[in-house]
């Protein structure tokens, strides 16, 4: 639990880092934000915050950089407060609606608006609300480290993918995993059983938990990719950010966007409930985001589930991004409910 002063220090560090991209020092905080607190006192608080995992020091002589844990405090404060909408974005979306554009056109245009306004990659996705039901899964053993995964959906084609396991997996073990999955999931909506099934397998088959995790991830990807249709835009927008002058980071986000199965898993994982969801960097290892953050807003109506999202650096301007996403989303939701 943060003290009131520690909370103020965390907020100031995150705000300064978002706007400068440079490690933050105690003297800067004392001069610009926490004028009633001495630099020495701030340094002491920063030392405690570093031990608590909220900040880190990239170099011995440098200031501090906020971690995903600190960004979470900052984002939660935004979500709990009263937020301003963007009149300019609302007006632009209204103009397009007056032209009687269909909903798919609105989605594409909305993602373009969001990308330009936030300098992030914008994602729009839509899927029918009809729930996908799993009929059965099978593993065809190739050798001790490889198997062909077969996923059969009710009323649909068979999907298949080759898996490479991190440990030896006998034919008997693969059959047991398939049996447990089919017992729990067969004939039931995948969305309703996925998370519980994952937890059950990891607990019950602890000795091969990593292989179970891999199998569940791939099954979820094959099932999820069945539904969503994606629109992404804004790669050129992130090139304007200093965070992506590093070719490694640029390649990482390009790889993420090229993997439709990974995108589909991410969208379904973080848009299961209506409303806004913010995923920050490495706070959830299974998100696949790494050094990026993502915002998702989702809505169900007229037989379709619709998702709008933003993907950008952990150091994105969350206040601006959240306001932009909510403004555009409100416009789309009104359109979808009329």
Describe this structure in words.
With 338 residues, the chain is α+β, with helices and mostly antiparallel strands. Helices cover 51% and strands 20% of the residues. The chain is built from 13 helices and 10 strands. The two termini are 45 Å apart. The model has no long low-confidence stretch (mean pLDDT 84).
Tell me briefly what this model is:
By secondary structure, the chain is an alpha+beta fold.
Number of domains: 3
Low-confidence stretches: none
- Classification by helices and strands: alpha+beta
Total number of strands: 10
Described by the principal axes of the CA atoms, the overall outline is: globular
What summary fits the major beta sheet?
A: 5 strands, antiparallel
Strand content: 15-25%
CATH class of the largest domain: Alpha Beta
Provide the gyration radius in Å: 23 Å
- Strand arrangement in the largest pleated sheet: 7-3-10-9-8
The assigned CATH architecture of the largest domain is 2-Layer Sandwich
Q: Work out the helicity level.
A: 40-55%
What's the helix count?
Answer: 13
Mean pLDDT equals 84
Oligomer: single chain
The CATH topology of the largest domain corresponds to Beta-Lactamase
Order of helices and strands: HHHEEHHHEEEEHHHEHHHEEEH
Let me know the CATH homologous superfamily of the largest domain: GAF domain
Distance between the termini: 45 Å
């Amino acid at each position: 639990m943060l003290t009131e002063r520690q909370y103020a220090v965390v907020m100031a560090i995150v705000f300064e880092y978002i706007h400068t991209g440079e490690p933050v020092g105690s003297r800067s905080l004392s001069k610009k934000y926490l004028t009633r607190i001495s630099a020495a006192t701030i340094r002491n608080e920063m030392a405690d915050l570093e031990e608590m995992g909220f900040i880190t020091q990239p170099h011995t002589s440098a200031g501090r950089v906020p971690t995903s844990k600190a960004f979470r405090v900052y984002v939660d404060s935004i979500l709990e407060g009263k937020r301003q909408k963007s009149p300019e974005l609302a007006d632009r979306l209204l103009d397009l609606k007056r032209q009687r554009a269909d909903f798919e056109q609105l989605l594409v245009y909305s993602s373009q608006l969001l990308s330009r306004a936030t300098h992030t990659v914008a994602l729009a996705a839509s899927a029918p609300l009809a729930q996908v039901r799993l009929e059965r899964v099978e593993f065809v053993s190739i050798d001790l480290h490889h198997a062909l995964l077969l996923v059969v959906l009710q009323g649909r084609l068979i999907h298949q993918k080759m898996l490479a396991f991190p440990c030896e997996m006998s034919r008997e073990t693969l059959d047991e995993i398939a049996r447990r999955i089919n017992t729990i999931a067969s004939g039931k909506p995948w969305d309703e059983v996925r998370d519980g099934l994952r937890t059950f397998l990891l607990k019950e088959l602890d000795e091969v938990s990593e292989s179970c995790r891999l199998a569940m991830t791939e099954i979820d990807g094959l099932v999820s990719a069945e539904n969503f249709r994606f629109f992404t835009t804004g790669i050129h927008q992130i090139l304007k950010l200093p965070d992506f002058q590093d070719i490694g980071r640029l390649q990482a986000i390009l790889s993420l966007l090229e993997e439709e199965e990974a995108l589909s898993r991410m969208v379904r994982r973080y848009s299961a409930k209506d409303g806004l969801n913010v995923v920050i960097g490495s706070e959830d290892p299974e998100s696949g985001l790494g050094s990026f953050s993502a915002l998702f807003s989702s809505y169900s109506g007229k037989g379709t589930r619709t998702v709008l999202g933003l993907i950008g650096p952990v150091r994105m301007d969350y206040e601006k991004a959240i306001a932009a996403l909510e403004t555009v989303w409100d416009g789309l939701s009104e359109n979808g409910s009329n």
